[in-house]
Amino acid sequence: MERSELIDIVKRPLSPDTQLEVPASREEYEQVQEMLENEQVRYSQLWYDGTKNVAIVVAAPSPLHSRMAIELVTNMREEVKGSRGMDDEIAGGLSLDSDTTNTEGSTTRAWDSALFYTEDDDETLMIAVEVGFSQTYESLRAAISWCVCALRCRLGIAMNIREEKLEEPLQVQHYASRHKVDNAIAEAKEEFRRQVVDSPFGPLVWKRVRWMGKISSVELQTFCAPDESYIPETLLHPTQSFARNNLEG
Q1: N or C of the chain: less Cβ packing under 10 Å?
Q2: Is residue 199 part of a domain?
Q3: How far apart are CA 5 and CA 27, in angstroms?
Q4: How far apart are CA 120 and CA 74, in angstroms?
């Protein structure tokens, strides 16, 4: 296919948790997505917003980012399964997912973590979690609010991780090939996993660069469509908010 801005960005090394919107047709998105699948590239991930006609390029998440989302949904599932009087068939129909795209109409997206319920081979997206890390909270809230309607999930949870101010800005890293990019990502992820054990709330440092400051607070907001008649263009207001500060210990 003809080289495009989308291909150039997909092949560019990106800092952890980065999301970039690129104007693109659905056809162009599908061609680039097929290219990524053929090359078996785990990251960057590619989503599509059919309302705005943009492809969304998603960089690899930080280990802390991934772990918080997955553990939150895992705890929810275990709470449901442990409820007194819960039918075993219902409890057995709950499953977790953090690596599968979901398509509704012209919109394709993956979640940081999600809880599904399966009955008679019919899978329903019940709870979806999106984590904002070193990005604006407003964009995170708008994204999950809109996706609750667009992807028909029953409940959306926006998790915003606030960090203390970094002493120095992140430095752009340049690599000569995709192979070197993949090796650098694998090396960084392994180093971050090691550091998270000793410093679960940061900071994370790799090659003398602080990729994440010390976390000062975590905020949760929930979104729920009142009925199935809501359209994808609708933005919902959060129904509940929670905040956790002073994360020492």
Answers
A1: C
A2: no
A3: 14
A4: 23
Residues 44 and 96 grouped into a single domain = no
Query: What are the tokens at 217?
Result: 């607070």
Query: Where do runs of H (alpha helix) occur along 151-234?
Result: 178-198
Q: Work out the percent of the chain whose per-residue pLDDT is above 70.
A: 88
Structure tokens at 203: 């900071």
Phi, psi for 98 (deg, rounded to 5):
-140, 15
Identify whether residues 38 and 101 lie together within a single domain: no
Note down the domain range covering 118. 62-164+214-245
Q: Are residues 70 and 147 in the same domain?
A: yes
d(CA 91, CA 210): 42
Tens of pLDDT, residue by residue over 167-219, are: 666 667 788 888 888 888 888 888 888 887 888 777 778 877 777 777 778 88
Is the same domain home to 36 and 149?
no
Helices 178-198 and 63-81 meet at what angle, rounded to 10?
60
Q: What pLDDT digit, counting tens, does each position of 109-124 carry?
A: 888 889 999 888 888 8
The CATH number for 225's domain is: 3.90.1570
pLDDT digits (tens, 9 = 90+) for 26-45: 999 999 988 888 887 767 78
Q: Note the pTM of the prediction, 2 decimals.
A: 0.71
